[in-house]
Structure prediction request, 125 residues.
Amino acid sequence: GVKNAFGTHDYTNVLQSIIQDVINGQRQQELSPHHIHLALTLIRDSDVGDAAPIVTLANLTTLLTAQLSGQPATNPQLDLIITIAKTLAKRQSLLAKNRHTICLPASDGTLHPATKLTYNDAPWL
Prediction:
């Protein structure tokens, strides 16, 4: 099929071109539902998700955060962010060496840099 005609590197390049298009405003200045679906599909492919540069995945989260401007993320947007977080969690040693901003959802669905979020591990207090 089509997937077999292209390699992991080709799909990683698609992710990077989505980001560049948005940053440069070449096609549109936000991640469209199509972009989100395509990125989610590519990242869920373990070869592509594992091969994608950390900066590419981090940039997807920061672009989406900027686009939402404090508004809660939709379910597909949250699905993309959580998928990216799970993918990056597999590469914690590399993530620790690179200081890229990763944005994650707060309990209200808004996205924030992970370093600014806290987890209430004692809600009974």
